[in-house]
Specification:
The complex is a heterodimer.
Chain A: E1 3-7, E2 10-14, E3 19-26, E4 30-38, E5 45-50, E6 56-59, E7 62-66, E8 70-75, E9 84-92, E10 101-102, E11 106-111
Parallel strand pairs in A: 2-11
Antiparallel strand pairs in A: 1-3, 3-8, 4-5, 4-9, 6-7, 7-8, 9-10, 9-11
Chain B: E1 4-7, E2 10-13, E3 19-25, E4 32-38, E5 42-49, E6 56-57, E7 65-67, E8 73-78, E9 87-93, E10 98-99, E11 103-107
Parallel strand pairs in B: 2-11
Antiparallel strand pairs in B: 1-3, 3-8, 4-5, 4-9, 5-6, 7-8, 9-10, 9-11
Classes of the chains: A mainly beta, B mainly beta.
């Protein structure tokens, strides 16, 4: 059974204090690993898709990396506006519906 | 270009009532999805569609029905609402799953 575990559940950072969020996964053949950002009361916002181990993608202060067992979302010099819940999800290669299996998320708070 | 829209934004039902949630997308996507999000449970797939006229069950389909009569619309129905269906419902569209703003449903 596919599993996605995100850690930590919650993270509090000071503005400018870089850190990483972890997403560990088990899946019977990975088609893609997805990262989303979700603000309170809103729908998840697509950030990245990673397809193979060693791949990296960047967007502003965020960089996502992928290994065969986990993905990291690195946040460099975060700002208060980066506060949100970050969701990780995997898409199995065998799933013809391209459905996503989500982790429970990491709630990030960045204080001034 | 509105992306993915959901109607209504909020709804309160009594146990046993029925309702339909509407999802519309203007990106010409084949794939559309319905998820529910509950505290501590994360996002769970209810039903999905791989094209007009097709539907399939996800992880938690019981108590829900869906229809995809037009490519741009995906409807989620609750025939007899139960308190356990109190949740936030999200529709998503496309391979990379762009999400709508959600419908907050309370069943009393």
């Amino acid at each position: 059974e596919d599993q996605v575990t995100q850690s930590p559940e919650a993270l509090r950072l000071q503005e400018g204090e870089s850190s990483s969020l972890n997403c560990s996964y088990t899946v019977s053949g990975l088609r893609g690993l997805f990262w989303y950002r979700q603000d309170p009361g809103k729908g998840p916002e697509f950030l990245f898709t990673l397809y193979s181990a060693g791949e990296e993608k960047e967007k502003e202060r965020l960089k996502a990396t992928l290994t065969k067992k986990e993905s990291f979302l690195h946040i460099t010099a975060p700002k208060p506006e980066d506060s949100a819940t970050y969701l990780c999800a995997v898409q199995a290669a065998m799933d013809s519906g391209y459905a996503l299996n989500f982790g429970k998320g990491t709630s990030l708070l960045v204080t001034p | 270009n509105a992306g993915v829209t959901q109607t209504p934004k909020f709804r309160v039902l009594k146990t046993g009532q029925s309702m339909t949630l509407l999802c519309a997308q203007d990106m010409n996507h084949e794939y559309m999805y319905w998820y529910r999000q509950d505290p501590g449970m994360g996002l769970r797939l209810i039903h999905y569609s791989v094209g007009e006229g097709t539907t399939a069950k996800g992880e938690v389909p019981d108590g829900y029905n869906v229809s995809r009569l037009k490519k741009q619309n995906f409807l989620l129905g609750l025939e007899s609402a139960a308190p356990s269906q109190t949740s936030v419902y999200f529709c998503a569209s496309g391979y990379e799953q762009y999400f709508g703003p959600g419908t907050r449903l309370t069943v009393t």
